[in-house]
């Protein structure tokens, strides 16, 4: 998975999703417009997603829900793996770690590179007024 670069800032950009560039590539291979995808989402699944939001997904500046990802795969007749990884999924732990470095993780935290010391819990002894 090749990360995209911000040419103005001269640095690697972090995406908010893993599927955007694959979604765009597959959509263009099928000669579909963003408006076509928008119409299919609305007519077939009752999902109202404006084409500007579809463009933001493709550019990696909007997150994608699991439902949206599943519906995109169904509409484009591809596997979820094809949408997430493109032609070749990472085969090992190091490849997966490298692939995930290009994606912003919002709700989970990355493990620190060096192990942190274990926290020792301090149990408070009940006072005589708190005793049963």
> What is the strand content?
under 5%
**Secondary-structure content class:** mainly alpha
Q: If helices are DSSP runs of H or I spanning 4 or more residues, what is the number of helices?
A: 6
> What is the total tally of β strands?
2
The first-to-last residue Cα distance is 61 Å
Order of helices and strands: EEHHHHHH
Helix content: 40-55%
Main sheet attributes: strand count, strand direction, barrel closure: 2 strands, antiparallel
Q: CATH class, please?
A: Mainly Alpha
Average residue pLDDT: 80
Name the shape in a single word.
elongated
What does this structure look like?
The chain is mainly alpha-helical and 132 residues long. It has one domain (5-100): lambda repressor-like DNA-binding domains (434 Repressor (Amino-terminal Domain)). 42% of the residues lie in helices and 3% in strands. The chain contains six helices and two strands. It has a two-stranded antiparallel sheet. Helix 2 crosses helix 3 (51-58).
Q: What descriptors fit this protein?
A:
two-stranded antiparallel ribbon, 6 helices, 132 residues, 434 Repressor (Amino-terminal Domain), mainly alpha
């Amino acid at each position: 998975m090749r990360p995209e670069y911000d040419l103005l800032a001269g640095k690697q950009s972090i995406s908010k999703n893993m599927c955007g560039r694959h979604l765009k590539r597959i959509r263009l291979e099928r000669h579909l417009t963003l408006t076509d995808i928008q119409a299919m989402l609305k007519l077939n699944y009752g999902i109202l997603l404006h084409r500007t939001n579809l463009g933001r997904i493709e550019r990696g500046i909007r997150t994608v829900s699991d439902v949206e990802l599943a519906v995109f795969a169904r509409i484009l007749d591809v596997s979820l793996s094809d949408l997430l990884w493109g032609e070749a999924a990472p085969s090992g732990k190091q490849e997966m770690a490298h692939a995930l470095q290009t994606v912003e993780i919002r709700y989970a935290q990355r493990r620190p590179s060096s192990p942190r010391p274990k926290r020792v819990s301090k149990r408070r002894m009940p006072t005589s007024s708190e005793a049963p």
